[in-house]
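User: Design a sequence. Structure:
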């Protein structure tokens, strides 16, 4: 084991140990405070971890889901981002449900522990994906219900952690609702349900495409350390985002196992690269991927994604079977059992939270943990295949020893990893 690897593993162990210590130290308080069931008039206290764009959107959706929910605590690595989000929330239509006191604003790498220990009932996890496994574990250890944004990890150890935490949540009857929002979209849910019931016969081919333009960049300031620069530009660093095949394309990839009744691919072959987005400001991630996933029955999913400015966009999914074809975004089936969805539309982002809070009120449990972890792994194995130029199996990816954690969580200088080179970069 190299010094760097040993340091990484020690760092992760220290974080998990710290999380466990916090959970143990507040076990009694958590048992009293957590509402596995909440009567209609009870206040559900919500905490937000990660106050960027997604967190600022998820928090009001959580509050709109329940008139007796209140946002009482916020945590972020950066105080300016927390204050900006809080100011916006106070001015929004759910402003009357925002009650975050000065002593419930937590900043820094350990802010999540302080928020979890502050008496919240429900936690919204919306940080960059790297932190999701440790944050989710700390929440479930402390007995909190969770809305968990996608993806839920960036490497194999992270996925294994989330799968273990998912099992703990089941034992405690705690809810975990995933940010894989298309599963909460009524038209797509009905469309895929019909495919699962055989409307297009035996599925043999899938095509999933997620081609978009470029995204934002936060120019580096002289006072920022390398760690701060990377975290403020988390999209462009694999240890933080998993690369965009994991951070964004997961939405498309998740539909393939979904339609296959949550069966996941056995292997993947891929290519990708960094053709346009080559400047230092874009870190070291790729700007395009093309992947071919193969399932146990021989069915294949051809998936591609691209983030390049000034190019045509395409976000579509199609499934072909022995009796017809499904246009997922068109909510349409052609062939022997032709069908077109004509039912109600819904705001899937809101529905996620509506169902979470309704379940808590009813004393029911929603646990999306297994599919959110496995769909994350599906995306990670696609990245691994493209980075290495090798065909990667499901078991290889799941049992990978590659831990992308930094040596330490401090505002220090950390190197930017080299751009992965297929045929040179090794699978770990």
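Assistant: Done.
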């Amino acid at each position: 084991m190299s010094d760097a690897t040993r340091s990484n593993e020690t760092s992760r162990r220290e974080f998990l140990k710290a999380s466990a210590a916090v959970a143990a130290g507040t076990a009694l308080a958590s048992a009293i405070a957590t509402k596995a069931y909440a009567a209609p008039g009870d206040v559900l206290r919500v905490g937000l971890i990660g106050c960027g764009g997604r967190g600022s959107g998820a928090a009001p959706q959580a509050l709109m889901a329940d008139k007796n929910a209140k946002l009482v605590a916020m945590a972020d690595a950066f105080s300016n981002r927390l204050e900006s989000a809080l100011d916006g929330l106070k001015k929004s239509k759910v402003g009357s449900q925002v009650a975050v006191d000065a002593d419930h604003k937590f900043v820094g790498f350990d802010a999540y522990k302080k928020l979890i220990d502050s008496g919240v009932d429900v936690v919204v996890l919306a940080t960059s994906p790297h932190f999701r496994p440790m944050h989710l574990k700390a929440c479930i250890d402390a007995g909190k219900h969770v809305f968990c944004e996608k993806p839920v990890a960036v490497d194999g150890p992270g996925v294994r952690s989330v799968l273990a935490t998912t099992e703990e949540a089941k034992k405690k009857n705690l809810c975990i609702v995933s940010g894989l929002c298309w599963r909460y979209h009524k038209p797509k849910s009905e469309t895929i349900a019909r495919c699962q019931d055989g409307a297009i016969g035996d599925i043999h081919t899938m095509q999933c495409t997620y081609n978009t333009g470029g995204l934002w960049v936060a120019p580096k300031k002289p006072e920022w350390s390398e760690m701060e620069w990377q975290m403020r530009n988390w999209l462009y660093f694999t240890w933080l985002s998993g690369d965009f095949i994991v951070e964004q394309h997961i939405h498309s990839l998740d539909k393939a196992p979904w339609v296959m009744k949550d069966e996941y691919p056995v292997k993947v072959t891929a290519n990708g690269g960094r053709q346009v987005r080559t400047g230092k400001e874009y870190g070291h991630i790729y700007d395009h991927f093309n992947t071919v996933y193969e399932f146990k029955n021989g069915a294949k999913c051809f998936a591609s994604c691209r983030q390049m400015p000034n190019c045509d966009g395409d976000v579509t999914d199609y499934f072909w079977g022995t009796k017809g074809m499904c246009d997922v975004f068109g909510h349409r089936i052609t062939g022997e059992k032709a069908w077109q969805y004509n039912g109600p539309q819904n705001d899937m982002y809101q529905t996620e939270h509506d169902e979470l809070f309704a379940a808590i009120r009813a004393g029911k449990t929603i646990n999306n943990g297994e599919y959110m972890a496995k769909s994350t792994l599906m995306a990670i194995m696609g990245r691994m295949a493209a980075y290495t130029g090798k065909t990667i199996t499901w078991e290889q990816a799941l049992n990978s020893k590659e831990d992308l954690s930094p040596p330490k969580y401090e505002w220090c200088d950390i190197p930017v990893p080299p751009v992965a080179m297929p045929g040179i970069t090794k699978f770990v």
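The radius of gyration is 21 Å. The first helix runs from residue 3 to 25.
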